[in-house]
């Protein structure tokens, strides 16, 4: 099966030597299994979340409560995916949080970006499966997209993208009925993995 092949031939293309628990800003995208529109719908350029979408939003908002070293920036729940910017803050007097510079699959590192995202996705899936009486059902695609935000220009461009995402739903690459291409998707795809763009 293609899915099984992909599962057994995955490889990390994370930025070599980058400490994924150090202070920094990140852009992430997590998608639903099969791109199913489970979180609501876009109506006249506005995202209308259903109960499932509200759970996803609530679990994300709880992240800094559970992890005080995380600061949330812009985010949006879309019909079948979730975009967010988050900051992992420094601890103490200007020193970065300490963690191994690499996180291997199956070996979580406390405080790292993968652990933060994995915990959020797991909490949302558990709550939603309890609501639907579907224990163990897949809610999310395996993995997620991440991008290390390097400068103010990137930050502002990604913030604008998140804020206007519902207005551009017809062009969204995750929209099963998309009617064109989004210039932002082309820009993001043009960034080299050396700059931190990763699909896992």
Describe it.
- With about 200 residues, this protein is of the alpha+beta class.
- Helix content is about 30%, strand content about 20%.
- The protein has a 5-stranded antiparallel sheet, with helices on both faces.
- The longest helix has 20 residues.
- The two termini are about 20 Å apart.
Entry keywords:
single chain, five-stranded antiparallel β-sheet, 32% helix, disordered C terminus, 20% strand, disordered N terminus, alpha+beta, globular, two-stranded antiparallel ribbon, 6 helices, Alpha-Beta Plaits, 200 residues
Concise account of the structure shown:
The chain is of the alpha+beta class and 200 residues long. The protein has one domain (19-188): Transposase IS200-like (Alpha-Beta Plaits), CATH 3.30.70.
The total strand number stands at 7
Main sheet record = 5 strands, antiparallel
How far the N terminus sits from the C terminus, by CA atoms, comes to 19 Å
Structural class: alpha+beta
What is the general shape?
Answer: globular
Topology:
Elements: H1 2-8, E1 24-31, E2 40-43, E3 46-49, H2 51-61, H3 63-66, E4 70-77, E5 81-88, H4 113-132, E6 145-149, H5 152-164, H6 183-190, E7 198-199
Antiparallel strand pairs: 1-5, 1-6, 2-3, 4-5, 6-7
């Amino acid at each position: 099966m293609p899915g099984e092949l992909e599962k057994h031939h995955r490889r990390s293309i994370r930025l070599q030597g980058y400490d994924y628990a150090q202070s920094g800003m990140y852009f992430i995208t997590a998608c639903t299994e099969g791109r199913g529109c489970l979180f609501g719908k876009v109506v006249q350029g506005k995202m209308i979340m259903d109960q499932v979408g509200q759970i996803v939003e609530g679990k994300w908002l709880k992240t800094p409560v559970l992890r005080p070293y995380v600061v949330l920036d812009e985010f949006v729940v879309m019909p079948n995916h979730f975009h967010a910017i988050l900051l992992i803050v420094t601890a103490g007097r200007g020193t970065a949080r300490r963690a191994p510079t690499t996180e291997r699959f199956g070996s979580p590192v406390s405080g790292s970006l993968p652990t933060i995202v994995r915990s959020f996705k797991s909490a949302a899936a558990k709550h939603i499966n309890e609501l639907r009486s579907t224990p163990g059902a897949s809610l999310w695609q395996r993995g997620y997209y991440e991008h290390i935000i390097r400068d103010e220009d990137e930050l502002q461009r990604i913030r604008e993208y998140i804020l206007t995402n519902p207005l551009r739903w017809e062009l969204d690459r995750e929209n099963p009925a998309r009617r064109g291409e989004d210039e932002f998707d082309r820009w993001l795809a043009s960034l080299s993995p050396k700059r931190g763009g990763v699909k896992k």
